[in-house]
Amino acid sequence: GQVRNGHPISLPRKTTSFQFWSERLSSYAMSAALATERDFWRSQRASAMLPVDFEQGSNLVSSLRVVSMNLDVKETTALVRRARGTQSTRVDDAMIAALAQTVARWTRRSVVLLNLEGHGRETIFDDVDLSRTIGWFTSLYPVCLSIDGSPGDTSYLASIQDQLGAIPNRGIGYGILRYLSKDLMTIDRSQTGTDPRISFNYLGQFDQLLPEDSQFKVRDDCLALSRSPNQSRAHLIEVDCFVVNGQFTMNWGYSEDVHRRDTITRLACDMLNTLKVIVSENHDPVTVGYVDTDFPDLELSSDSLDQILQELEF
Q1: pTM of the prediction?
Q2: How far apart are CA 7 and CA 155, in angstroms?
Q3: pLDDT tens across 86-124, in order?
Q4: Tens-place pLDDT, residues 28-62
């Protein structure tokens, strides 16, 4: 843009290098601060078994198929508005709540184990700035969610976001402890078979990625395979969500050798309908209120917070 307008080229200063970030993570892995998270991550355990249609089916990249579904523009606006309408709700809170309810009904269990994927650029060091550092910093971490109530109850969403709010530093510590800690017994899940078989990733609002006058645009097609067709997939089901062209879209990735398409389609429909209930206009976002994890520095219990909010007439 500067060249096109005849201006001198002026680029911002570089931010933290990938090498320095890696070195800081390595030292952080053995820190006392991170050691406090060990018990939390050890507690994130539940049955990882999922119903399958083909018991001996292979779970390779070559067998990957995708079921895609959308909310319309009006419903997407309601979803985003709900998150913005209350301080305690993020857009992905509602998505995870809908997915957890769907999996609980499918497995007939009241506890759901998911792998959540994040951008991995959490602010955990004062001397690190990753805002302009190029690289894939993804964090992947397990979360064990207790399902209590129905999606039509505001208390259900509050319960899920309370559990999500208890995750330290948006989950970045799990991978550091598991893969960078020299204490191999810190978190050893590889031999237990308890790794989650479903992953969730909210990729964000692509509509906000580029300005309207940008020379670039987001492609909606894939140029080439990014993984070998013979590679084993880490999860049986991968749920990726994003907003593009004003519409919420979710993609359910699965192996056709493990699950039938109609099985995954039914699950995707269930999640979409559950999400519609959660963001329904009949549920005023203001009534969701606050939870204790919205005020971590105050160290309040849920009951104490409720009492204070009642006195303040919130």
Answers
A1: 0.83
A2: 55
A3: 545 578 898 999 999 999 999 999 999 999 999 888 889
A4: 999 999 999 988 998 898 888 999 999 999 999 99
